């Protein structure tokens, strides 16, 4: 009963904070609250008042991380040739030039047990040359190498975890030239994550090597509330699956923590499934669009050595990537829903240069016209904005006022940037 009471109190506090959000951070322009829309939002549309308290401050993650991770496609079927060939493919496809610079090895890279000295050992069959040699190869391409461990006795695939071995393992990773650590949550002995994750932060910092610290706590203890002082990103959800249902549910969960993200620390709704075959082209495009709008990490989860033209088109859209990497660093969010079961959705967020990104997302099973009202986005109704379509790479309108509408296919998401008309004319 005591545990239930504590949990209830925690949820009450979270709800109170969320509903009564205080003033928007000074980084943002003054924004208008919702006017005449169906659902009432928190006090400020793009609230960032929870961000910035005791951030990790290791100089990384000024924008969300970009790269590739082995798990979604390869699972445990990994070896050093796959990692090398992936690094090569990131270069030859041009993905690396677009910012995809982390090559991250997930679970199953190590032997099942530590050696006689208590150290982790790379799987001798999968990584016969060792991880340092692999890091040297990846670095020679101008890329960075990431690795995986767990804040428990074992990893999720029952390899050695780093609980109670944080300093030894961090020192080993640094000696190999590791640039990124994904730190999972399996076999955790029931110890609270707020206790298990800081020791690895301290251990990584003690190595003297700058290593990106990605917490994979699955959102169990609402890491957005506490992980900003510990890591550079934190998983807000359970593992993504390559389905429409999983992707949309995860987007909704991640959305509620938008006020806590910003430069230095990001909400992580898990890796991209684009190109893995479980969703349609339109659904994958929506997946990529919403992840970029939410300032999520863009970690490719498919086999980049064998991409279809459609997958390549999605992953290389520079205008959408630019939204994710916009230096203002404010997570966009769901600002208005209507229609059957709220499946006509408007997501939006502020960008640098007094611009706004707007996504019209049709989560219904039939095409529909979706309208973004200026008031819902936080704009004065009399203001004039150009509307640039980020998937068609053309202007849908050079002078729109009050609202903007578009026909959206079923399960599709169209993405736009709104810019003050005066700034567009000046650029021309």
From TrEMBL:
Keywords: Disulfide bond, Glycosidase, Hydrolase, Signal. The keyword Hydrolase applies. It comes from the Eukaryota. It catalyses: Hydrolysis of terminal, non-reducing alpha-D-galactose residues in alpha-D-galactosides, including galactose oligosaccharides, galactomannans and galactolipids. PANTHER family: ALPHA-GALACTOSIDASE MEL1 (PTHR11452:SF75), ALPHA-GALACTOSIDASE/ALPHA-N-ACETYLGALACTOSAMINIDASE (PTHR11452). Residues 341-418 form the Alpha galactosidase C-terminal domain. Its EC number is 3.2.1.22. Pfam families: Melibiase_2, Melibiase_C. This is Alpha-galactosidase. InterPro entries: Aldolase_TIM (IPR013785), GH (IPR017853), Glyco_hydro_27 (IPR002241), Glyco_hydro_27/36_CS (IPR000111), Glyco_hydro_b (IPR013780), Melibiase_C (IPR041233). Belongs to the glycosyl hydrolase 27 family. One of its GO terms (molecular function) is alpha-galactosidase activity. It is an enzyme of class 3 (hydrolase). The keyword Ribosomal protein does not apply. One of its GO terms (biological process) is carbohydrate metabolic process.
